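Notebook, p. 212. Picked up where the previous page left off. The plan for this session was modest: take the two constructs that came back from the sequencing core last week, fold each one, and keep the raw output in the notebook itself so nobody has to go hunting through shared drives later. Recording the first one now, exactly as returned: residue sequence, then the structure token string.
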Amino acid sequence: MGSTMELHHVQRPPTRVPRYTAPTTLAAAFEILDAGGDRVRPIAGGSDLLVELDRGEHHDATTLLDLTRIEGLDAITHDPEAGTLRLGALVTHNQVVADPVCVDRALPLAQACLEVGSAQLRNRATVVGNVVTASPANDTISALLALGATVELTSSTGSRHVPIAEFITGFRRTQRRPDELVTALIVPTLVGDRRGVFVKLGLRRAQAISVVHLAATVAFDTDGTVAGATLALGSVAPTVVTVPDLDDRFRGRSLDAAAIEEVAFRAAEIASPIDDVRSSAEYRRSAVRTMTVRALTALVDDAQRSRWPAAPPMLWGPGFDGRFPPPAALSDSRSIEIEGDDPITATVDGAAVTAGGACGSTLLDWLRDGAGRLGVKEGCAEGECGACTVVLDGAAVMSCLVPAGRGAGASIVTVEGLAAESGLHPIQQAFIDTAAVQCGFCTPGFLVSCAVLLDEIPEPDRDQVRAGLAGNLCRCTGYGAIEAAVAVASGQRSGDQV
């Protein structure tokens, strides 16, 4: 008998979901879910789902249900009396990073959000989506476990609340039913002398999947002894796991060097990592011990905020507040329904463009094939390289990870819209002056990211430039000249100094 050969994902044709719908109310969304069952794929940020579709997965899906037009799901609400933060289903990682209450009262979550992907990715990717994907490498899950978060699931018949530790049932498996949406995360805040920290080990500074990540919270009594502790470990088991019995073992004890070593040994002991392309299991166990010691030492020293940047770049344009879609930005506030070759209309580089081909496509494909913006490049189709960066309703995004239907009624700026009638954009001229162009493939994405960075931070320092451009890769490694171009465009250097 012949064997069945399975194609590698790069050999499989992409899945083109035949219907795209973007309702404006939860009630309408639940009608679609109830009618379509498990053949409906909800989408918010899309940073995981669109990659999977491009790899030929979800071939049974009949409807892509875009939640981003539903008002109210993009809010972060602080309830000081209850001591909680409520993160709606559309809250992005960058919203958490930019929210002072999240940074002050849920620091491990903010730190984890800052480690996810790049600024463009964090402008679309949602915290709820990170949880629903349920990969043990997903950074925010360990932070949410350490903080004791609860998941709110809602259907047409009501809502229920499930502790996050119970919500995730296995590798990429959760308790969510096909008729439910995760509408919020309820996160207890750090009050009194309860401290928390998130630590990540990756193979590079940005755009890195965790080799190991962990989050720890410790509540200290008035005498400095431990009143409660939680330690959550990621990328070391099929799910993110917590170290058991920490409260029983350490309550009432001082968290001295010996106690910290005891916790670190216990953490490495309960880890069950695998060997993969990022690390050996042995190295992961060793890293768990080292990272646990450093995390707990930082909490004892009250130094958990020492590496938090003062002003991390968001890549937000003027007036953008982190929410998508900003209600004022959408000229079409109706529900969107797209099937077949139904056209959509968007404002692209200041002009209205109407074109078909949006259903089952990414915004990148529609911009190139429908709107004729060939300056937008596809490098990876996975949100890794930044060549497809555009500005969507005021924020830089990876257009390969945005469904084309999201462009309906939106304002989009590509590299071809940077120049004005009076001449080149300052960053374009600076690229010329500093010879920041080599093969040129990455250049359009870099130019868009640089332009938004300079709009947000007119005179960025070197760390801000590197953080703001971390989502853009130059295959020719021409980063020095690109950094110099930003300095020239910002007026911090002149062209003849380069």
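Okay, moving on. Second construct, recorded in the same format:
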Amino acid sequence: MASTLTTVFVALLVITTFTRIWLGRRHVSYIQSHREQVPSAFAGNISLDAHQKAADYTSAKTRLVIAESIAQAILLALLTIGGGLMLIDEAWRNMITESEIIRGALVILSAFLVSALLELPFDYYKTFVIDQKFGFNKMTPAMFFSDMVKHSLVGLLLGAPILFAALALMQSSGDYWWLYLWVVWSVFNLLMLAVYPTFIAPLFNKFSPLADEPLKKRIEALLTKCGFKSQGLFVMDGSTRSSHGNAYFTGFGSSKRVVFFDTLLDRLDGNEIEAVLAHELGHFKHHHVIKRIVLMFVVSFLGLALLGWLKNQGWFYEGLGITLPSDYMALLLFLLASPVFLFLLRPLLASYSRKNEFEADEYAARNAEAKHLVEALVKLYRDNASTLTPDPLHSAFYDSHPPASIRISKLAKFTG
């Protein structure tokens, strides 16, 4: 059984990696083959220069993703069947012999630190080479590393209690430890949704109340019309790090707030901002956030139930390169290996997300004006250098939002 798992894992890792490479190369090739002509639906609003910039920007990012995918696959193989996790485990066993929970937490943190160190040069290259070249980066190296340290500390402060709780429950709560952990994990996620906007997000960005009174009144009228109550309207200083623009809802329950990037407010007029907000309200009205939370709870329930069974199977450890089974190693193996087994399900998740976007667009078209949403989308595609010609198969695997041409053609039926 162990050898079968090893064979399946290696086969899926190879298939997943080569699929990522193949899809990425298709994407770049498709984009470059359509680089010389703006799609007819956008010809009057997006210049050839802007279209070519988006093509080259997307191609550069995709090539980096291909390289990162290869590096991640090699690292995963080295950590598992290559014996890397066993080396980390043995090192901590020599230093900490009494508390398995503390040792387990250190082993898991060490493995994720290795993964983070691998990702660091790719993140740095994207920010200071690709984004810099195309005029999007506003960060300094000092800000980049400061954010990295803050993210790490916040992740550690929030993640460590959950990690210790998980290891403690695995060790002392009997056969149904996974059910108790699922309850703890679910409560933790709901708590994070509530406290993130007020206590965590301000650690990385400045949030100021929307000061434009005419726009504020207009937005508040739309919120009232749509039955949405929020903690407030805020502007985020996104321009300090990037020139990309966006808007989003964040929080849960009474902590919900509407956030606009300052870059978005600089680019769109009042009609367009209202249409973008109406789209976000569409997600609220269609209960997309609640549905995703429920889906997350269901998936985590099934995943933890599966882990509860795998933890007691010797072949699970042996098949993934572990000769000394332990609770913490079961958890770590599951976290590292499960994406390989789930990769081919990505198109289903992406399709569900795009369906949500179509529903939100339709809601916006019925509660604002579709033509203003189209105008806003065209500006955002142009200013964010989002390609107008993605490879259809690559888009089916990865894109949470519909391709620009399809999205705008569906909105066109509301503009007549």
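Notes on construct two before I forget. The chain has a mean pLDDT of 91.
Flagging for discussion at group meeting.
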